[in-house]
Automatic annotation (TrEMBL):
One GO CC term, this protein: axonemal dynein complex
InterPro entries tied to this protein: DHC, Dynein_heavy_tail
Domain Dynein heavy chain tail stretches: 5-167
PANTHER family xrefs: CYTOPLASMIC DYNEIN 1 HEAVY CHAIN 1, MALE FERTILITY FACTOR KL5
GO biological process, one term: microtubule-based movement
Protein's recorded name: DYH5 protein
GO MF annotation list: dynein intermediate chain binding; dynein light intermediate chain binding
Protein's gene: Dnah5_6
Species of provenance: Pygoscelis papua (Gentoo penguin)
Annotated TM spans: none
Length: 169
């Protein structure tokens, strides 16, 4: 029982740390007002990396051994652990899926940033079709908040490109 108690303490520390990571991921991001859409892709790539590392740790033999000992001891901490394990998996899947979908927009980021206002407009219909495809098919990215954030960043990039064009002319 002494060993079980020590292991439960360790798992409770892990639970607290994992909850903190999950909570931070759900908090509103503070971003500059003029940030472009490539920042959205970078954000999700960072999240994907973080959650994949966390999943690797959760699946490590050390963690599995501790969990199996606590299962044998019928520990009550395992209910919380399993719930968090599931939440981490969901967050990792969401980040991976969002990166995959946002990469389909990546080909537009260069022309959006470097084009003149006239040539930029040639890319807008394809860009909007791709955004529409993401909205219609992504299981995670099809919320009003996510789409608003993405469209705001696309608009910011278009405005910045136009400002640059006007200052150079």
């Amino acid at each position: 029982t002494e060993v079980t108690e020590k292991l439960e303490e360790v798992v409770m520390i892990w639970i607290k740390q994992i909850r903190q990571v999950l909570v931070e991921g759900e908090q509103m991001r503070r971003e500059a007002d003029d940030i472009g859409p490539s920042a959205e892709l970078e954000h999700w790539k960072t999240r994907m990396s973080s959650f994949n590392s966390l999943l690797d740790e959760i699946k490590s033999s050390r963690v599995k051994k501790i969990i199996s000992i606590l299962q044998a001891a019928r520990s009550k901490t395992l209910k919380q652990w399993k719930e968090l394990d599931g939440n981490v998996t969901i967050a990792a899947n969401e980040a991976k899926d969002n990166v995959r979908y946002l990469y389909t927009l990546d080909k537009f980021f260069g022309p959006l940033a470097k084009a003149s206002p006239v040539t930029m407009m040639e890319h807008v219909p394809s860009l909007m079709n791709t955004v529409c495809m993401i909205y219609c098919t992504s299981p995670y990215y099809n919320t009003s908040e996510r789409m608003t954030s993405l469209l705001l960043k696309i608009t910011n990039q278009m405005i910045n490109t136009c400002k640059t064009y006007l200052c150079e002319g």
